[in-house]
Amino acid sequence: MENQYMEMFLDESHEHLQSLNEGLLKLEENKDDVSVVNDIFRNAHTLKGMSATMGYNKIAELTHEMEDVLDLIRKEQLKLDENIIDILFKCLDSLEQMVDNVGNGDPEDLVDVSDLVKKLSAISKGEPVPDAAPAAAGAAPAADGAAANGIELEDVDRDVIRQAKKSGLQGIHVKVTLTEACVLKSARSYMVMNTLDELGDVIKSVPPAEDLEQEKFENSFDVLVVTDAEPKAIKDAILSISEIEKVECEEVDPDAQPAPAVAAAPAAAAPAAKPAASPAAAAKPAAAAKKPAAKPAQKKTHHQSQSVRVDIEKLDTLMNLMGELVINKVRLEQIGQTHRLAELTETLEQMDRVTTDLQNIVMKVRMVPVSAVFNRFPRMVRDVSKELNKEINLTIEGEETELDRTVIDEIGDPLMHLLRNSLDHGVEHPDDREKKGKPRTGEVGLIARHEGNNVVIMVTDDGAGINADVIRRKAVEKGMITEDEANKLDDADAVRLIFLPGFSTAEQITDISGRGVGMDVVRSKIESLSGHVDVETQVDKGSIFKIKLPLTLAIIQAMLVKIQEEMYAIPLGSIDSTINIQPTDIKTVQNKEVIVLRGEIIPIIRMEETFQVPHVKDSDELFVVVVHAGEAKAGIVVDNLIGQQEIVIKTLGNLFAGLKMFSGATVLGDGRVALILDVATMMQ
Amino acid sequence: MANTDTKQQIIDDMQVVAFKLRDEEYGISILNVQEIRNLTDITRVPFSADFIKGVINLRGSVLPVIDLKQRLGLAETPYTDSTRIVTVTIDDLHVGMLVDAVTEVLTLENRPVDTKKAINSKEGSRFLSGIGNIDGRLIIMLNLPEIVGLPQE
Description:
CATH superfamily of the largest domain in chain A: Histidine kinase-like ATPase, C-terminal domain
Strand order of the largest sheet of chain B: 8-1-2-10-9
Number of helices of chain B: 4
Low-confidence stretches of chain A: 132-148, 258-302, 507-516
Strand content of chain A: 15-25%
Strand order of the largest sheet of chain A: 14-18-19-17-16-15
CATH class of chain B: Mainly Beta
Mean pLDDT of chain A: 77
Helix content of chain B: 10-25%
Helix content of chain A: 40-55%
Radius of gyration of chain A: 34 Å
Number of domains of chain A: 5
CATH architecture of chain B: Beta Barrel
Oligomer: heterodimer
Largest interface: A-B, 31 and 25 residues
CATH class of the largest domain in chain A: Alpha Beta
Distance between the termini of chain B: 7 Å
Mean pLDDT of chain B: 81
């Protein structure tokens, strides 16, 4: 199945699973919301269709069962309860695993879903849900099916058989048992299937054909065929294959009630199955009555924007081509000016507007709302808080904030870690919270917002906070710092020690967090994205983890400056202000050149000297760009300010690997390259 | 690996892009050459290695340019109308090389003389991989991985 649809299938499956997760969470809060059930149902249905088309029968089977249950809920024939929701969540997990397996090129059936399928079908039949079946359940159906009917008819199968009946064929259920001594079970089953194929059409088999090929069955298996052959003929044909113990053939009545799945409890199941077996009839009037009411509700269901998936590389290429276009446009403009071609200049002005718009759009295309990562957290918080027996309310704000696609792809794991950390170490157990006079339910927040040229994402909790003294003690115990050093740190700095490698304060190691890899991994990840992470905390009040990220890695606002004849770009995010000074305004303090700005002494950096820029002309006027990195400030002396511009960052490549002074280069409108200053490095 | 590749190519017939640095003629395998461009504005990169002239804009991406004469220890000459930037690919690395003029594309039939013997072990010789001889015209073949400073086995 290595085809071009694979990618699309995986993407879309994940999308549908995500919607399913979200929907279920909503349902859990409000169990009577029919419009949500409708949404979920549609998602499950699409997922089933897709996986069936791709030939992933297990996924299709499980989603089909989910669909059945959801359908009953939708028709209000089944009351949704906590138990059902839990099972549905588990289904989603299994589905996700299967989709992942498929994506990794593994077979989908590494995940055993037979137990879930059983539970679901029990629910939809109104039977008591069987307790967790033994792990061997996968092989069981074929074995215990010996009692009566090892094959379960689905609507589709019934339809096929009905159709077949019309054309004079009949559906026959064949149960084949191999001899105990049979060695090549797969070969025998293959021969049986072949024989049946010659006699008619095989609709389905239990276990499915792939399992038969891999010998994933006991000694018997069930096949449903549509054929014009007599049962007797089929029996004889199969018995002629060696090592066959016995063959049972039985005509299948498509309109009969589905055989109970749990054969051991037919008496109990039969009456219970009744209402489920006749939903088609019973549901009709109910559904018909429902219709007018359901319609408006459906209209309100969320508007889905139309979108196309695009390879990110194509966007990069698009952006490069865009740059070329702009450069050539500038050349044309120059030709127009030199030759005084008014007509050309006018046309180019038009073109200028178009290219500017085009450029803007190409850049915007790369931006993705953070909801793309935030979406998966409500589910995680639910699971983790259940696991930890904590009551937690997650608040998400600002999920529409946009970030560059590359950042979005990387930010998920660090955020997940911070959240888990807050859930595990931050928020206390409900009882402890009560003792402290806090509400039992802990509040955890995930907040994104713009802050200048940055996006800030905060993970907040109202939990125990971090005790600076505990951190000091731990750090000394682990030999990371000496006692003296520890005592010199103020509380805020002491707490920041958690970002050092090898620091984990977890008293006991849990599955959730505290595996020794911790905050330092978060920090290095964030820093690799040119971001910054910090923490504010108050004991018993809670903690705030604050991640500051550049809006995009690819496009930034920058100030273009000129030093003699060379052009450089300074990221606007690190610029405080620009001022115009006379050379005499520069004073020296302890042999270092400084300027005084609003009472503040700011050291200056003369770029011309630092960069050894060829000196062309003297200027009597200087400009100082005041930049900051963290708390520190510096003034960069330049000859001229060209202006503020959106620039596209390009890497300088391997040849300049050791060069920390520049964070990259950019191509300017006239086709020349300008280097982008890394202010933090420059100030060191 | 790169080294053995170059040797292999030298043994067989090979197509070579020949260019001039001062009065001498040099060559590199055509397989490495992407394109030959007219001189454009080169942006100097402070703190970079001496032999790196700077970076240029190659259709929207940034390409480093090596000053070959500087790298081979030849004296500098001013840019002329025939100055070109030859862009080459070595493994995954794209670089431009500044040359005085591109002369032609040649086919070397004979195995070039081993430089290690032919040239006294001057500093520059590690950048050369051999000398081709076409009717008395000498083409000095360049060892590209060494020139761009890639580590070699």
